[in-house]
Design a protein that fits this description.
- Chain A: Residues 5-290 form the FAD/NAD(P)-binding domain.
- Chain A: One of its GO terms (molecular function) is metal ion binding.
- The complex is a heterodimer of chains A (840) and B (121).
- Chain A has 840 residues and is an alpha/beta fold.
- Among the domains of chain A are: 3-111 and 248-312, FAD/NAD(P)-binding domain (3-Layer(bba) Sandwich); 125-244, FAD/NAD(P)-binding domain (3-Layer(bba) Sandwich); 490-546, no CATH class; 632-788, Sulfite Reductase Hemoprotein, domain 1, CATH 3.30.413.10.
- Helix content of chain A is 29%, strand content 21%.
- Chain A contains 25 helices and 39 strands.
- Chain A has a five-stranded parallel beta sheet, covered by helices on one side. In chain A, strands 9-16-10-11-12 form a five-stranded parallel beta sheet. Chain A has a five-stranded antiparallel beta sheet with strand order 22-23-26-25-24, sandwiched between helices.
- In chain A, helix 4 (160-171) links the parallel strand 10 (152-156) and strand 11 (175-179).
- The longest helix of chain A is centred in the last third of the chain and has 18 residues, at 723-740.
- Chain B is globular.
- The chains are: A alpha/beta (840), B mainly beta (121).
- Chains A and B meet through loops of A and strand 1, strand 2, strand 5 and strand 6 of B.
Chain lengths: 840, 121
């Protein structure tokens, strides 16, 4: 007979508990009842600030949170628990339902702390915790924007959440003021020096910071509010948001007699058990042995521990939490780790405060200066991963030298100093020891090899630079040479070709390389020449440089036949064109398949059939889709606001415009793109090299996404830009990639390995920090102006056409090795039994 | 079946491929031999002509003539267009797997015209 588990609270931690129990409880022993106060299923509260980008609650939804298809989970939304009778094992809800339980888990989370300031409950005062809170702030901000002048908002509290709230207000077009009682921002995580720098960097972003002062009272003035600060300043604003910390929601626990920790929170032991049998508490409402945690990761660990006990019956403990933090607030990198406030007895602090560079770094070390205890990094958190793994260990060098940008340990802590058990890749738990042994014993010689062999760097990618350093320290020389014929890297060759105007491979290899080339450098140079607009890729000696598919402007399949993909911009196609494709495929007896890029692939064409197929396609209004090229493939789109009742922009129109703009442009690797018409993201733009998502006010541009074997979520490069700006930014992005990436390096890996990462990319592309944007745009205009359809160009050139034969001495003869059979009503290749390979 | 190739009745006789200039420099063409064998005929940048079987031994597909021609340590090779295994143009030996070899053909250049024939037993 099944037992009943009642979970009070449906936040991220409560939801994780349900998921973990369901995953382990294969037999379905537990019937789970979730009592949720909010009217919507659990959502990503950590990502709450991103709600401002789209105002679409769906975008924050946690997968499976509605438990719609799970008969073992009963989700009672909008009906909070109001009382617990631990004697009768009964929970009563706000609606009056009495729910018996065999096990009870309290996951009530926390509530925002609102200081008892007079006027804190006036209309126009808000807290920052739920989607409903943000909706209310949004409505007030909209009303305020309708008034005269720039609207402004006050955030009470300058901690992590306060700065998030300030960002949200700024994104709503309000001018934010942050009021913090402590002498610095983020007082819990960082110290005075770091806080001062943070305040300066944040001020540059149009946020006014008032520290070391309280908010004395809030008084209404007309439709607005005035906040009187303790230091005598009066701030008038359209709204006030309180985010002065959180308090555990332990009221339910108090009322049913559970023990409460000294500083609040339901007191539990390391197994998250309260003093009463079968009652547990997890997440922000729990005080594990007296300590509360305001982060989601420890909450998840508690949920896993309780789920394991409920499903296995064995004790499982909360393993404690690493409270190291690394985050980006308002675009500023901030990190703290270990004993950041030097609370260990005798701890010493070493600080490097570079006001010019805008970086602040502090290490906390033991009294003898040999052991790292903790630290604070602001403005540049590049060394966070390395330093965090060193906490509690001997320092490899004098602390000042470690922090010094040009000191003995230039580039930060040498990787040599890391102990073998230090975790380099925390996503996949790969240690330094595993990596060095993959190099020494496994023979890995490149970052790509390490990724394949150990899995390191395949999660968030933040450790990729560290992998390179580890290879260096193992004595592996990572050559950037294209191949044995060119000592230069691809980007160096690109600059040479662009600078010298060399227009052929033979001249380039004669002047800058050696030998006669190979299957690596020839296609790489062919791509560079094509990117720089040296004519049709099958012109003259370019033809024999091209890789397999480019060589015949079609995709070679396993039996030596080709597949043909005409361009269908944005996936939009008329019935007439669909019929034309059908007729052509029928006439040439081609296998047809819908591709992932919203177009149609026709397989089984022989070399000699290709021009005849193209002729028919071109006559029907099609052109090459460049499915064969390291070039733009498709710009996928959802149907957008034209039809979709959720759409906020014309995603198909934008996709068509982008696809026609970048079609045919040769790049270091293929380029995929997508445009979604709303935040529901049906076009999956965040898995593309560049992805565009419509917002109510314009477009958000994401870059560096990837599907495939190593998926990567794209990064947001710019928000709410208009169409013209969007296209200008993509022009620059794509051209910068073409100029600087390695051969066959997708944008995802390019961005991961870029020094300075996304921030650097943004400074180059958006702020034009290198002063090259005009050049990049001009190159793109050149491409757009000179585009011609490659298929059509072959059809009108007898010399090129003559190469599309199976046999030079028998132009009409078909290849006798090619044969087909039928499968699911279409032709497919007869597998060529690999012939007896002659073994010498 | 008439393959368009002049039949001589003698499988060891020479088959005309094309004018040497019709082979792209550092590229290849395929030729059909009487009896159905296929030769991949290449010209390296120095003008030397080579002929190998057109069948890629790793896939069984008749594609080697469509591979990229290059060199490594002065050894001229063609890389299979399917998976890039390289074959020595002079001997047919696979440079990436010493146990694999494709057969090579005799080449005759006569007045700017290339002929090939299968090697005798």
């Amino acid at each position: 007979m099944s037992r009943t588990l009642v979970v009070v609270g449906n936040g991220m931690v409560g939801h994780r508990l349900v998921e973990a129990v369901r995953a382990a409880d294969v037999a379905g022993d537990w019937h789970i009842v979730v009592l949720a106060e909010e009217a919507r299923p659990a959502y990503d509260r950590v990502g709450l600030s991103s709600y401002v980008d789209s105002w679409d609650a769906e975008a924050l939804a946690l997968p499976g949170a509605d438990h719609a298809t799970d008969e073992h989970v009963e989700l009672q939304l909008g009906d909070a628990a109001s009382a617990v009778d631990t004697g009768r094992k009964l929970v009563t809800t706000a609606s009056g339902t009495a729910q018996p339980y065999d096990a009870l888990v309290l996951a009530t989370g926390s509530r925002p702390f609102v200081p008892p300031v007079p006027g804190h409950d006036l209309p126009g005062c808000f807290v920052y915790r739920t989607i409903d809170d943000l909706d209310a702030i949004h409505a007030a901000a909209r009303r305020a924007r309708d008034g005269r002048g720039r609207a402004s908002g006050i955030v009470v509290g300058g901690g992590l959440l306060g700065l998030e709230a300030a960002k949200a207000l700024r994104d709503m077009d309000l001018s934010p003021h942050v009021v913090e009682m402590a002498p610095r921002l983020m007082p819990l995580q960082i110290d005075d020096g770091g806080g001062a720098l943070l305040a300066r960097l944040v001020a540059e972003l149009d946020v006014t910071v008032h520290t070391a002062t309280s908010t004395a009272e809030i008084v209404p003035e007309g439709h607005r509010l005035v906040a009187r600060l303790g230091n005598g300043t009066d701030l008038d604003a359209d709204l006030v948001v309180f985010s002065a910390g959180i308090r555990p929601r332990d009221d339910l626990a108090r009322s049913c007699g559970l023990e409460i920790a000294e500083r609040g929170g339901v007191l539990v032991d390391e197994q998250c058990r309260t003093g009463i049998a079968d009652v547990y508490a997890i997440g922000e409402c729990a005080a594990v042995q007296g300590t509360t945690y305001g982060l989601v990761a420890p909450g998840y660990a508690m949920a896993e521990a309780v789920a394991a006990q409920l499903t296995s019956g064995h004790p499982a403990t909360f393993p404690g939490a690493d409270t190291s933090t690394k985050l980006k607030l308002l675009g500023v990198d901030v990190a703290s780790f270990g004993d950041a406030h030097a609370q260990t007895e005798g701890a010493l602090e070493v600080v490097v405060n570079d006001a010019v560079a805008g970086t602040y770094k502090k290490l906390v070390v033991s009294d003898d200066g040999t052991t790292l205890l903790g630290g604070v990094l602001v403005g540049d958190t590049g060394e966070f991963n390395t330093l965090r793994t060193l906490v509690g260990r001997a320092l490899p060098d004098d602390p000042a030298a470690i922090l010094s940008p040009d000191g003995a340990a230039a580039g930060g802590v040498g990787v040599d100093a890391l102990p073998d058990e230090a975790q380099v890749c925390s996503c996949n738990a790969v240690t330094k020891g595993a990596i060095t042994s993959a190099v020494h014993e496994g023979g890995c010689e490149s970052v790509a090899g390490l990724k394949a062999c150990t899995g390191a760097g395949t999660g968030c990618g933040s450790c990729v630079p560290l992998l390179g350093k580890l290879l260096d320290s193992c004595g592996v020389e990572q050559s950037t040479a294209v191949c044995e014929h060119f000592p230069q890297s691809r980007s160096e060759l690109f600059e040479i070709v662009a600078g010298t105007g060399i227009a052929t491979f033979s001249e380039l290899i004669a002047r800058y390389g050696s030998g006669s080339g190979c299957a690596i450098c020839k296609p790489a140079v062919a791509s560079i020449l094509a990117s720089l607009g040296t004519g049709h890729i099958l012109d003259g000696e370019h033809a024999t440089l091209q890789d397999t598919n480019d060589r015949h402007l079609a995709n070679m399949q396993r039996n030596g036949t080709y597949s043909v993909v005409p361009r269908v911009p944005g996936g939009e196609i008329t019935p007439e064109k669909l019929i034309a494709i059908g007729e052509i495929a029928r006439e040439f007896d081609l296998y047809t398949k819908i591709t992932g890029g919203q177009r149609i692939d026709m397989f089984g064409a022989t070399v000699d059939e290709l021009p005849r197929i193209w002729r028919r396609l071109v006559d029907a209004g099609f052109e090459s889709g460049h499915a064969y090229g390291k070039a733009l493939r498709t710009v996928k789109s959802c149907v957008g606001w034209t039809w979709c009742r959720y759409g906020v922009q014309d995603s198909v129109g934008m996709a068509v415009e982008l696809e026609l703009r970048y079609r045919g442009l040769r790049s270091p690797h293929k380029l995929k793109a997508a445009v979604s018409g709303c935040a529901r993201e049906c076009a999956e733009a965040q898995s593309k090299d560049f992805g565009v998502i419509a917002t109510e006010r314009g477009w958000n541009l994401y870059v560096g996404g990837n599907g495939g074997a190593l998926p990567r979520h794209a990064d947001l490069l710019a928000s709410d830009v208009d169409s013209e700006t969007l296209i200008r930014l993509i022009d620059r992005f794509v051209m910068f990639y073409i100029r600087t990436a390695d051969r066959l390096q997708r944008t995802a890996r390019w961005l991961e390995e870029m020094d300075g990462g996304l921030e650097h990319l943004r400074s180059v592309i958006v702020d034009d920090s290198l002063g090259i944007c005009a050049e990049l745009e001009a190159a793109m205009h050149e491409h757009v102006a000179n585009y011609v359809d490659e298929w059509n160009a072959v059809l009108s050139d007898p010399d090129k056409l003559a190469r599309f034969t199976s046999f030079v001495n028998a132009p009409e003869a078909p290849d006798p090795t090619i044969s087909f059979r039928t499968e699911r009503a279409q032709k497919v290749p007869v597998l060529l039994g690999t012939p007896e390979v002659s073994r010498s | 079946m008439n393959c368009g190739v002049e039949q001589t009745g003698d499988p060891t006789a020479w088959t005309r491929v094309c004018a040497v200039d019709a082979i792209p420099e550092a590229g290849g063409v395929a030729a059909l031999l009487p009896g159905g064998a296929q030769a991949a005929v290449f010209r390296d940048p120095s003008g030397t002509v080579y002929a190998l079987s057109n069948i890629d031994p790793f896939s069984g597909a008749a594609v080697l003539a469509r591979g990229i021609v290059g060199d490594t340590d002065e050894v001229p090779f063609v890389a299979s267009p399917l998976h890039k295994e390289r074959f020595d143009l002079r001997t047919g030996e696979c440079l990436d797997d010493a146990s694999v070899r494709v057969s090579s053909f005799d080449v005759l250049l006569d007045d700017g015209v290339v002929f090939v024939r299968e090697l005798g037993p």
